Amino acid sequence: MRKNLLLLLLAVLSFTAFSQTEKEEKLIQFSGLVMTSDSLHAVPYATITIKERMRGTSANAEGFFSFAARLGDTIYFTSVGYKPAVYIIPTALTVDKYSVIQLMTKTEYYLRPTIIYPWGSREAFRQAFLDLRAPSDLEELARQNTEREKLAEAAKELEVNGNEAARRQLQARAVKYSYMGQLPPQNIFNPLAWAEFIKAWKRGDFKKKD
Prior knowledge:
Elements lengths: L1 H23 L2 E10 L10 E4 L4 E4 L5 E7 L3 E5 L6 E4 L8 E8 L17 H9 L5 H10 L2 H10 L4 H17 L12 H13 L7
Parallel strand pairs: 1-7
Antiparallel strand pairs: 1-4, 2-3, 2-5, 5-6
């Protein structure tokens, strides 16, 4: 009698262990979408890992994923720029397919600004700047662009805005008020004007052009 009871007890324990193992080993198709928690946009290529087996997959460009998992598995969701998320598959499922929408929260990483210079030190930069020699054609071009005559011609072609017109009018009034009660000076007696006239005459600015 005792022997029969012992055999019955072993059979019950074996059946219970087998049922529990079968339940734990039950596989389901676990799928879903990984989305942002604030705007519900897809999180592309998120990494999905099963903690117990350190296996997993990754979502596609639309945030979709699908893989085989077990009941009770702990699933980790990670992606650059987002806080990690955890989901535990329920153990009481009776279906072989299970879908979820996993939300992830954005996180911000502040990096210190980095400026890269081609010189090893300030002294090296100073020496390189002093040793810099611009090509002669560039020097000539810079000299021509800064000639007074060309600057004056360029200024004439520019349209006068409201601020410039007001400034010129105020300057003209200031000059007029400064010579009030007396004759304003004539450029014919201005030595600087005569010097500019002589330079222009020597350059041939007054010759007729064919």
